[in-house]
Amino acid sequence: MKKQTKVTEKSNIAELVSNHPEAAEVMMAFGLHCIGCFASQFDTVEQGAKVHGMPKEEIKEMIGEINRVINNPESD
Q1: Going residue by residue through the chain (76 aa), what tens digit of pLDDT does each one get?
Q2: CB 9 within 8 A of CB 44
Q3: Is there a domain that residue 53 lies in?
Q4: Which of 4, 27, 53, 55 to pair with 33, CA 20 to 30 A apart?
Q5: C-alpha angle with apex 18: 15 to 22, nearest 5 degrees?
Q6: Is residue 1 part of a domain?
Q7: What pTM was computed for the model?
Q8: Rounded distance, CA 11 to CA 67, Å?
Q9: What is the CB-side half-sphere exposure of residue 35 using CA atoms within 13 A?
């Protein structure tokens, strides 16, 4: 059984995308296009989203979708 990954607001963007490239698609769909940005090396998902004006509710929705996609890829 594959270990479940838990992405949170504090997850580093670059590390997340490196380990789970499919997360980049979700983040870009939510308008978070800083995947390749230099700051992504240091920013958390929450920091990147806030810089781009994403409200807290949308950040939670995006993180939920990222977790769904990386932990249940066959459900797409």
Answers
A1: 467 789 999 999 999 999 999 999 999 999 988 777 777 888 999 999 999 899 999 999 999 999 999 998 775 5
A2: yes
A3: yes
A4: 4
A5: 115
A6: no
A7: 0.86
A8: 12
A9: 18
